[in-house]
Amino acid sequence: MDRTSSRARTAGLTLVELMITILVLALLLVQSTPSLQSLVHGNRMRTEAHRLLGAINLARSEAVLRNTAVSLCPLVLSASGSAQCGGNYAGGWFVFANRDRDRVVDKGVDEVLQVFPALPAGYRLSNRDGTRQLTDTISYLPDGSSRVNRTLLICPPPGIDLEPLGIVVNSVGRPRLARGWGQC
C-alpha cells in the first residue's frame, strides 16, 4: 500500500488563498494609513501644546513664588552655549527670572529656570491668524498677571489636515487650551 494514500491530506493554505489574504491585508493597510497618520500628528500636536502650556504655567507660578518678573521667550544659544532670547518658538524656548523685564538674560541678575527643546520638524507656532511665527516674549509680573491677551497656535506640518491647537492667555495671565481658535 502506498504511504501517501494512507495519510490524510495536510491542512494549509493554497497559493491562491495566500495571495487573496495578502491582498485583503494590503487594502486594509492602505485604507487605514491616513487615519493613522492624522492620529499620530494629532497626538504630537497635543504633546507639544501641553509642553508649551507647562512652560507658561511654570513662568506664571515662578513669578508669584519669587515675587519678581519671569519671562518665557524663544531660545537662541549663544556661542558660549548660554540661553538668549531670539528667533521664534519653533526653535525651542526657555523660562527665566527677568528682574529688569527686558529680553536679555543678565549674568548674575537673571536666572534661567528651564530650557525646552524645539518643536518637531514641520510643526510651527504662530499667531491666531496664522500670518507670522511668534517671536514675542511672554512676561509675568509678581502678581501672576501678564497684562496682555494673546493666542499661540500650534500648527501641523503642511499637508496634514488637522485643526490647530491654541493656547489662549488672558490679561490676568491664565492660560488654557482651545480648539478651533484660529487658523494656520
How much beta, percentage-wise? 15-25%
Oligomer: single chain
- Domain tally: 1
The count of DSSP E runs of length 2 or more, i.e. the number of strands, is: 9
The low-confidence parts are none
So what's the overall shape?
Answer: elongated
Order of helices and strands: HHEEEEEEEEE
The CATH class is Alpha Beta
Task: State the helical fraction.
Answer: 25-40%
Number of helices: 2
Going by helix content, strand content and strand pairing, the class is alpha+beta
Largest sheet: 5 strands, antiparallel
CATH superfamily: minor pseudopilin epsh domain
CATH architecture: 3-Layer(bab) Sandwich
Gyration radius, rounded: 26 Å
Distance between the termini: 79 Å
Characterization of this structure:
The protein has 184 residues and is an alpha+beta fold. The protein has one domain: minor pseudopilin epsh fold (3-Layer(bab) Sandwich). It is 30% helix and 24% strand. The protein has helices spanning 3-6, 15-66; strands at 70-77, 83-85, 93-97, 111-116, 124-126, 138-140, 150-155, 165-169, 175-179. The strands form two sheets. Strands 1, 2, 3, 4 and 6 form a five-stranded antiparallel β-sheet that branches. The radius of gyration is 26 Å and the shape is elongated. 24% of the residues are buried.
